[in-house]
Amino acid sequence: MFEMTNPVPVSFVGGESGVWHIERIDAVVGQALPAAPRLSVLEGPTACATGPVRWILRGATSNTRYTTRAEVEVLVARQAGLNRPEATRAALIPIRKSAAWWALAQDERRAIFEEQSRHIHIGLDVLPGVARRLHHARELGEPFDFLTWFEYAPDQADAFEAMVSRLRDTPEWAFVEHEVDIRLGR
Amino acid sequence: MFEMTNPVPVSFVGGESGVWHIERIDAVVGQALPAAPRLSVLEGPTACATGPVRWILRGATSNTRYTTRAEVEVLVARQAGLNRPEATRAALIPIRKSAAWWALAQDERRAIFEEQSRHIHIGLDVLPGVARRLHHARELGEPFDFLTWFEYAPDQADAFEAMVSRLRDTPEWAFVEHEVDIRLGR
Question: Could you report the predicted ipTM of this complex, rounded to two decimals?
């Protein structure tokens, strides 16, 4: 959520290689993605996957878009990084929002995102157990606007499910027109 | 500044073809770009330039990032579109901001952008004479964060120069670490 450095290009490759087993791919809103047994998470502009590829979702980390300085300070103090040894569960949740969302002005999107939906606060409730990295894809011409990647230990699974469920119940989610939920383990 | 639809990928190609003559390329901060006689503005993901190419700058239109609803309404009421027959002057101004800018939170960037620098208000002063389209490039892995394209009639040249000069004098511009100013005619 808080990147000090340049954007990192990341490709999520569904295919037959990668450390992550894909356990299920659910369509939440709209169509699912084709089944694939494994997922590779490749960083960098020239990343190459090995073996047959079913799909590739591309995004890039970027700066915060709604988070205030006060919120950033709380997040940075609490959040954990990716690749913790105990974090053997993961989720990749690609989302596309509607044209109505993108036609809103910045203050309108912020109000729905946090003041009405408490998106940041709902995410804070699962820190530091659930690590998260957001990837922007809209400007890349991709089919999704965002690819959010989560990693957590098995004992955080209930907290993670509760967070996902709370978010889907917010006013912000009324603007989600395509959402896929990919669950993984290693 | 206000795009209702999906992002439009745009490539600015410096080379030997295109309707725009490149009259000069100035380095404002950091290095300039190589000289080229003409510029093509190509829209779409599979755009191809003809003839030898000196450089390509890629970006995509996107949603507003700082503009409030009240500001959007004023802009939409006043602004003109691209490709007006009388708009025979153009400028392409690629900008890269510093890591310090991108490490700021959303409220801090907004405060510098508008409350301290009056970026939106300075731009309003030249509407509808100067048409403008902003392209985001940071998440594309490009060397610049933004490519701003301006079109205006010759009798708006003084107003355009005054606007550029006022913006470069703002607190926001202290965060600009690379800026090139390309002037064109047709």
Answer: 0.93
The pLDDT tens digits of the residues spanning B119-178 come to 999 999 999 999 999 999 999 999 999 999 999 999 999 999 999 999 999 999 999 999
B39 has which bridge partners?
B14, B20
Chain A residues with CB under 8 Å of B9 CB are 141
pLDDT: which is higher, A98 or A46: A98
Counting beta carbons within 10 angstroms of the beta carbon of residue A44, is it exposed (0 to 12), middle (13 to 18) or buried (19 or more)? Answer: exposed
Output the pTM of the full model: 0.94
Q: Which of A6, A60, A102 sits opposite B63 (nearest CB)?
A: A102
Q: For A45, which of B3, B69, B141 is closest by C-beta distance?
A: B141
Which residues of chain A are within 8 Å of residue B68 when distances are taken between CB atoms?
Answer: 105-107
Are B69 and A105 within 8 A, CB to CB?
yes
Alpha helices in chain A (DSSP H): 69-78, 99-102, 106-110, 119-124, 157-168
